[in-house]
Design brief:
This protein is an alpha/beta fold. It has a single domain, classed as Alpha/Beta hydrolase fold, catalytic domain (Rossmann fold, 3-Layer(aba) Sandwich), CATH 3.40.50. It is built from 9 helices and 6 strands, in the order ββαβαβαβαααααβα. Helix 2 (about 65-80) packs across helix 3 and helix 5 (about 140-150) runs antiparallel to helix 8.
Length: about 230
C-alpha cells in the first residue's frame, strides 16, 4: 500500500500532514473516515489527523480480526514516520481495535477516546432482552448477508443497496459525498465485515483478559436508557 500526502476522502489512507500531535481515527465496522469530515477539518487546525479504510489492505490471509487491524495501525505509524505517542480515537468496532492496541502498546498512547465503542463484554449482549436488535439480524445472518454482498460487483451492489446519504451528509462537499457513496459499493468492505463479525466476540473476550493501562481515557456513549429501549 502506498502512502500519499494529498488529502482525498476517496483514498484508502488519509493524512492531513498538519503540525501537531498525531490523532488516529479508527472507524466503526462498515464506516468510512469520510463520515468524520467535519471533525477532521476541526482537528487538523491543531493536530495531524490520520485514518484508513481497513478493507483496502489486502495483505494477509483475508481474515480480518482486531489483531489484524492492530498490525495495520502499526504499519500506518511506521510508514508515516510517527514515533511520538498518539491520541487514539476508536468508534464502535474501531473502539475494540483501539482497546487492543492500547493494551499491547501503552507506551505509544498519549490518550484514548472511545466513541460508542464495542465493549470487551460484548458476549453479555446475548443475555439481554433486545427485541429490536434481535429482530433485525443475528450475527450468523449478518455474516451471510455480508458474504453475499462480497461476491457482487460494484455495479451490482449499487443496484442492490441503492446507497443514500443522510440529510447531514448531503450538506458536505460534493467530493466527500461521492466518497461516501462509493465506499458503500466496495465488495471488499463486506468481505471484511463478515470476517469481523465472525470473530468479534472471541476477540473481545481475548482483549478483556489484560488489564487496562494507566492512561488518559475518555468514553463517549449514547444515553444508556435510550440505547436499551432501541435495542442497541
Amino acid at each position: 500500500m502506498s502512502f500519499r500526502s494529498t488529502i482525498s476522502y476517496s483514498d484508502p489512507y488519509l493524512d492531513t500532514k498538519s503540525p501537531g500531535t498525531p490523532v488516529i481515527i479508527l472507524t466503526g465496522m462498515g464506516c468510512s473516515y469520510a463520515e468524520w469530515y467535519e471533525i477532521i477539518q476541526s482537528l487538523q487546525q491543531t493536530n495531524r489527523v490520520l485514518s484508513f479504510h481497513r478493507h483496502a489492505w489486502t495483505e494477509g490471509d483475508g481474515v480480518h480480526r482486531t489483531s489484524h487491524a492492530v498490525r495495520q495501525l502499526q504499519t500506518l505509524l511506521r510508514k508515516s514516520k510517527i514515533q511520538e505517542p498518539i491520541l487514539l480515537i476508536g468508534h464502535s468496532y474501531g473502539g475494540l481495535i483501539a482497546q487492543e492496541f492500547t493494551k499491547r502498546f501503552p507506551e505509544q498512547i498519549k490518550g484514548l477516546v472511545l466513541v460508542d465503542s464495542t465493549s470487551v463484554d460484548l458476549h453479555e449482549l446475548d443475555a439481554l432482552d433486545t427485541p429490536v436488535l434481535d429482530g433485525f439480524s443475528s450475527d450468523a445472518a449478518w455474516q451471510e448477508q455480508c458474504r453475499h454482498y462480497a461476491t457482487k460487483t460494484k455495479e451490482q451492489l449499487n443496484q442492490l443497496l441503492k446507497p443514500v446519504l443522510t440529510d447531514a451528509q448531503q450538506r458536505l462537499p460534493k467530493a466527500v459525498q461521492s466518497a461516501l457513496i462509493d465506499f458503500q459499493k466496495e465488495p471488499a468492505l463486506y468481505a471484511m465485515m463478515g470476517s469481523e463479525v465472525e470473530y468479534w466476540k472471541a476477540d473481545a473476550a481475548r482483549i478483556r483478559i489484560d488489564p487496562f493501562p494507566d492512561l488518559p481515557l475518555i468514553v463517549i456513549a449514547r444515553d444508556a436508557e435510550r440505547a436499551i429501549q432501541d435495542g442497541r
